[in-house]
Amino acid sequence: MAKVLILEQSKSMRNILRERLEFEGFATTVAEKGDVSQSVCERRGYDAILAGGDYECVSQLGVPFIIVTNSGSIDGAVMAVKSGAEDYLTAPVDMNRLLGSLRRIVNRDRDQPEEPTAVASRPRRKTQCGSEPIVGSSQAITQVRDLIDKVAKSDARVLIMGENGTGKELVARWLHDKSNRAAGPFVEVNCAAIPSELIESELFGHERGAFTSAIKQRKGKFEQANGGTLFMDEIGDMSLSAQAKVLRALQESKISRVGSDKDVVVDVRVVAATNKDIKAEIAKGNFREDLYHRLSVIVIKVPPLRERAGDISELVHHFISKIAHEHNIEVKSVDNQAMAALSAMPWSGNIRELRNVVERLMILSGESITLQDVEMYCS
């Protein structure tokens, strides 16, 4: 259970934040400013601090912090972010945004470089999962996270379904990172990107001399993923002949390299993904029904962004922070009208499209992102 320290002078505000966070599953401690030190934070293992307005007293405690203030301003937000704040919220507090920020902190990759909002000397808190966070507080994406938690520890095969750009690969990585195979390899193969005549060699490997360009023995993706997870993306685009061999590998836990009559035993958990309607592909004769049933022990449907529009604000702020770091530019604020316009867009390309738009706005806009910027650069 994640631990949150609430530093707030107002008793009523402390109680409001404590009650809501405990309802959401966080363990909380409340205190007034000046009552804690870095040694106390280290000893009690806080994951995050909510500080009521004054960020100077918490910026050196070595714990990610969020500012919650009654009187916000753009200058105050900029100064707080430069001093290391993960987020800057004004009362009345947007609880969805607060919860989203806390979850990003708790789940953040321990190996990722410091975000531009972080104090350079502040140690990173170790987290369980090494993947990018699944950002959002909507019911639709919360259900996806909950399903990952239920399924990850088993070796059950998972079929992830969703439109392009919804984050299917991220779901697969979380399934691996939270599984008992997390110390093993995570190997990805995009079945749509490999020519049909090469897919079997890519998956199962080949022996030297198996075909003209096979100048040496090569292990395929199944062998490379031994002891870990094989993520087969765009499984719906695989040829029927390759599907038959994948089915055998799943049934017997062994494969044979192209050009060999010897079997190789493999211990692999297969997670597959597709943007196609597999049942429709089965009806057309393009996909094996028996393989579908082997792959779909658990089905996770990743919702399109239009069905989780309430998450757009969190996603925008998340991408702003990442992009500022990648391009070595200042974090920019987004005015309310601009955020409303972004939230109302259809996003046919889903999260991938949203990230590209945010990157464009970060590069082309002025000191902040305005409605005019959205209208000019997102049409």
Structure, described:
This protein has helices at 11-23, 38-44, 74-82, 95-107, 139-151, 168-177, 199-204, 221-224, 240-252, 278-284, 289-295, 312-327, 336-344, 350-364, 371-377; strands at 3-7, 27-31, 48-51, 65-69, 87-90, 158-161, 186-190, 229-233, 254-255, 264-265, 269-274, 298-301, 333-334, 368-369. By secondary structure, the protein is of the alpha/beta class. Mean pLDDT is 84; it is low at 109-129.
Query: Which percent bin holds the helix content?
Result: 25-40%
SS summary, helix count? 15
Instruction: Detail the poorly predicted runs.
Output: 109-129
Sketch the major β-sheet: 5 strands, parallel
Helix-and-strand structural type? alpha/beta
Report, as a whole number of angstroms, the end-to-end distance.
Answer: 43 Å
Based on CA inertia axes, which overall geometry fits? elongated
Kindly provide the radius of gyration, computed on alpha-carbon positions and rounded to a whole number of angstroms.
Answer: 24 Å
Q: How do the helices and strands follow one another from N- to C-terminus? A: EHEHEEHEHHEHEHHEHEEEHHEHEHHEH
The average pLDDT value, as a whole number, equals: 84
How many β strands by DSSP? 14
**Oligomeric nature of the chains:** single chain
Largest beta sheet: what is the strand line-up?
2-1-3-4-5
Strand proportion: 5-15%
Structure characteristics:
five-stranded parallel sheet, 14 strands, elongated, alpha/beta
Give the secondary structure arrangement, pairings included.
Elements: E1 3-7, H1 11-23, E2 27-31, H2 38-44, E3 48-51, E4 65-69, H3 74-82, E5 87-90, H4 95-107, H5 139-151, E6 158-161, H6 168-177, E7 186-190, H7 199-204, H8 221-224, E8 229-233, H9 240-252, E9 254-255, E10 264-265, E11 269-274, H10 278-284, H11 289-295, E12 298-301, H12 312-327, E13 333-334, H13 336-344, H14 350-364, E14 368-369, H15 371-377
